[in-house]
Amino acid sequence: MASVTSLSDSVQQQLASALTATRPEAAGADPLLRRSDRADYQANGILALAKKAKANPRELAAEVVAHITTGDLFKEVEVSGPGFLNITVGDRAITENLAARYADDTGRLGVPQARHPGTTVIDYAQPNVAKEMHVGHLRSAVIGDALRGMLDFTGEKTIGRHHIGDWGTQFGMLIQYLCEHPGELAPAEEVDGEQAMSNLNRVYKASRALFDSDEEFKERARRRVVALQSGDKETLELWQQFVDESKVYFYSVFEKLDMEIRDEEIVGESAYNDGMPETARLLEEMGVAVRSEGALVVFFDEIRGKDDQPVPLIVQKADGGFGYAASDLTAIRNRVSDLHATTLLYVVDVRQSLHFKMVFETARRAGWLNDGVTAHNMGYGTVLGADGKPFKTREGETVRLEDLLDEAVQRAAEVVREKARDLTEEEIQERAAQVGIGAVKYADLSTSPNRDYKFDLDQMVSLNGDTSVYLQYAYARIRSILRKAGEVRPAAHPELDLHEAERALGLHLDAFGDTVFDAAAEYAPHKLTAYLYQLASLYTSFYDKCPVLKAETPQQVENRLFLCDLTARTLHRGMALLGIRTPERL
Q1: Which of 209, 284, 494, 574 is deepest in the core (most CB within 10 A)?
Q2: Which residues 6+ apart lie within 8 Å of 412 measured at CB?
Q3: Given its phi and psi angles, is residue 498 left (phi above 0), alpha (psi -120 to 50 degrees) or beta?
C-alpha cells in the first residue's frame, strides 16, 4: 500500500507553488501552515516574505490567492488580518484522503516511514538486581516503551538497553552469605516472580543483618567483592544466581505492566566491567581526564559547586574502583562503535541530568560522540502522592510497583463491572487488567515527561476527562456500532457534503501521522495522548450531531460508518504505540 500525503502537506505544496509563481525569489519559502480556529488551516509565511520583499503583506497575500485554483482541495482561500491566508479544504478532498488511508491494509493508515531513518539505542527500564521494583521505576519503563513504539512506527531502528544495577559492593555481601548458606536460592526455572522476590528479600535481609553485626563476615564480604571484580569462577556463578532469580522477578512485573522485555537487551553494568580500564586509559592518554588527589577526573569550567570550585566527573576513584561514569562512558563507546547508533536516548530520572551532561561532554571531548551521533537524556519528573510529595505508603515506605499495579487493576474492575452488561466475570477481570494498566500508563504519558505528576487512581480510572478509560470506551462504543450495522459495510462516498462535525473529525484523523512524527521527534508522548483525547472528543461530538445507523440515506450511513471505523482504527493504532490495549467490548 502506497503512503498517503496528508492534507496539510498537499496544501503546503500548492501554497509553495503559488508563492513561487507570485515571487520567483520565494522558491523554497515555507508558508508556515498551522491549524486555525477560523479555517481549516492558516498560512502565516506571507508576512515574512513581504518584509523581505519590502511589499505590503495584504497586497502580496492577494497576489498569492490569485495564483491558487479552488476546486477539490481548496474550497475557499481568503486574506485575513495583516496578511494571513485562511484556507478551507473541500469536502471531497477530505473524504478521498481518508478513503486512501482506510484502504491501507498494513495497519499504518497510509502513514509513510521516514526516508532516512537512523538507529536509536534507548536506555530505559533499569531495575536493580536483588531489589524490589518500586514506584520510582514506573516512569522510565512506561515512557521508554512508548517512545520506542513511536520511533519504531516512524521507521527508526530501535535497540533497547536495560542498564540494570547488577554490579557493585553490595554483591560481596550477598554472594558471601549465599556461599555460606547454600541452597537459599532455588534454580531460577523453579520459581515464579513472587517466589523469586521473596527469596531475594530473605537473602538480602539476612545478609545485611549479618554484615552489620559480624565484623568477620563483613571482612569476608569485602574480600568477595575483590573476587567478583577479578572474575573468580565460583563467585561469578553465585552472582549469576542472583541475576537469574532477579530476571524471573523483573519479567513478572513487566508482564503485569504489559511490556515486552527482551532478554538480549538486558545489558547491565557488569557488561561494561572489562572495558572500563580501557576507557580510563584512553581518557587519560587523550588528556580529557586528569589525575586529582589520586582519582581520574574530568573538569568542566561551567559546572561549579557551592564553593565556586569545579565539580569533577569521577571516572576512576583513588582506590582504583570505577563508578557510574566509567560504565556509562564505556556503554557509549559500545553503542556507537558496535551498535552503530545515530542517537543515544536515556530515559532516566531528571535528577541525573547533571551526571549525563558531564558524561556526554566527556564523550564529545574524547571523540566518541561526534556530529553523526546525538545523545539525549529524556529526564522525567517524580510520581507524587495526593499530598504533592513523593509517593509513599502510609508507613512512609516507597510503594512497591506490583502493589500499585494490582490496586489499579482492582479499581478498574469496579468500573468495568459497574458498566458491564454482557461480560462474564472472567471477561471483566481480563478487561480490568487492560483498563487498569492502561490508566496508569496514560496518566504518566499524558504528562510532559520532565514534570512531576500526582498519582490519583480515582481520576485515572474515571470515565470522564482526559483518561485512557475515556478513550477505551470511545473505541468500544464504535466497535459496538459497527457490530449493530450488521451487513451494512462502511464505505467512503466523496460526493457527499459533510457536516461540520464530520469535517472536524476527518481533518483530525488526517493529522495522525504528522502528530506521531512530531511527538517522536520531540520525545513527547504527551503530544500523542493529547491528539488521541481530542480525537475521542471530536468523535463524541460527531456521534451526538450526526446519526450513523439512522442517517438520511444509505450512502450517508455507509460514509458515517466509514468515519467510525477509521476513527476506531486510529484510536487502536495510537493507543498501541503507547503500549495501551483497546478492548473490543466494555
Answers
A1: 574
A2: 431, 432, 433, 435, 436, 439, 461, 469
A3: beta
What kind and span of H or E run contains 515? Answer: helix 512-521
The DSSP secondary-structure symbol of 40 reads S
Alpha-carbon span 457 to 405, nearest angstrom: 10
Residue 340 sits at the vertex; the CA angle it makes with 528 and 527, to the nearest 5 degrees, is: 10
Q: Match domain 7-89 to its CATH number in 3.30.1360.70, 3.40.30.10, 1.10.540.10, 3.40.50.300.
A: 3.30.1360.70
To 5 degrees, how large is the angle CA 442–CA 444–CA 447? 100
Q: Which residue reads 521516514 in cell numbers?
A: 114
Residue 518 neighbours by CB under 8 Å, 6+ apart: 524, 527
Name residue 193's beta-bridge partners: none
Handedness of CA 223, 228, 233, 239 (dihedral sign): positive
Identity of the amino acid at 420: A
Residue 139 is inside which H or E element, if any?
Answer: helix 138-154
Instruction: Supply φ then ψ for residue 43, to 5 degrees.
Output: -100, 125
Residue 392, SS3 per DSSP: strand
Domain 401-577 in CATH: superfamily?
Isoleucyl-tRNA Synthetase; Domain 1 (1.10.730.10)
Spatial strand order in the sheet of 84-89: 33-35, 41-43, 84-89, 74-80
Question: What is 454-498 written as a DSSP string?
Answer: E--HHHHT-SSSSSHHHHHHHHHHHHHHHHHTTTPPP---TTS--
Structural contact between residues 362 and 304, judged by C-beta atoms closer than 8 angstroms: no
Domain 119-163+270-377 is in which class?
alpha beta
- Cα distances from 509 to residues 3, 133, 373, in angstroms, run 15, 39, 34
Please list the pLDDT of the chain residue by residue as tens digits (586 residues).
Answer: 578 999 999 998 988 888 888 888 767 777 788 887 778 999 887 787 778 778 888 988 888 888 888 788 999 999 988 888 899 999 999 999 999 999 999 999 999 999 999 999 999 999 999 989 999 899 999 999 999 999 999 999 999 999 999 988 889 999 999 999 987 776 666 667 778 888 888 888 899 999 999 999 999 999 998 899 888 999 999 999 999 989 999 999 999 999 999 999 999 999 999 999 999 999 999 999 999 999 999 999 888 877 788 899 999 999 888 889 999 999 999 999 999 999 999 999 999 999 999 999 999 999 999 999 999 999 999 999 888 888 877 667 788 899 999 999 999 999 999 888 788 999 999 999 999 999 999 999 999 999 998 888 889 999 889 999 999 999 999 999 999 999 999 999 999 999 999 999 999 999 999 999 999 999 999 999 999 999 999 999 999 999 999 999 999 999 999 999 999 999 999 999 999 999 999 8
Which residues 6+ apart lie within 8 Å of 571 measured at CB? 471, 474, 475, 478, 532, 535, 536, 582
